[in-house]
Amino acid sequence: MEREAYSNLLQWKNNPSRKPLLVRGARQVGKTWLIKEFGQHEYAKVAYVNFERSKYLQNLFAEHYDIDRIITVVQIETGVQVNATDTLIVFDEIQEAQGGLSSLKYFQENAPQYHVIAAGSLLGVARHNQISFPVGKIEFLDLYPLSFAEFLLACGQKPLRDLLQSKDWEMILLFKDKYIHFLRQYYFVGGMPEVVNTFILSNDFCALRTIQKQILT
What we know:
Blueprint: H1 5-14, E1 21-24, H2 31-42, E2 45-50, H3 67-78, E3 87-92, H4 100-110, E4 115-120, E5 139-142, H5 148-154, H6 158-166, H7 169-174, H8 176-189, H9 193-202, H10 205-216
């Protein structure tokens, strides 16, 4: 599944003035998948920490923000030897770690050589309302459900996607019926990655509705 946000991640990586990146979005829009996919293809190593799963690390940033100490903990937790030149550090579900958001400021100020991506949901709500947000010290990427163009790609319709993006309206009009067909499917399926993937594999609309209801719940 191709996501247009992948190109944004590439731009971030290649920017010499890169800051820690915070990927924001609702649950189940594919934040973790996108970051792991990006890390797998663009870095030699990925040091991935999920603070929701590794609950004993939720106090990692509680007392101080010594970067060397944080890197040591990440290496022990992940088994990955972190190197600033070829390793992507990922802090997933960072809202679960006390002081996690603030730690990104210290990476930017004291260790900008590291490539750090954080991801999470419910940012800026109750549990973080007493914590100073690292304004100006991090970059943001907002991830949404699949767009119609991304849905076309997922359905194996790259030529239709490319034609749509060309804005050659006269040519697009020739394939109006095809676009209407896929747009109707998109209206029902939506853009949540799990639902789209199930649609591609099974074409079972009843199964899709079950997954949609589970996500809503």
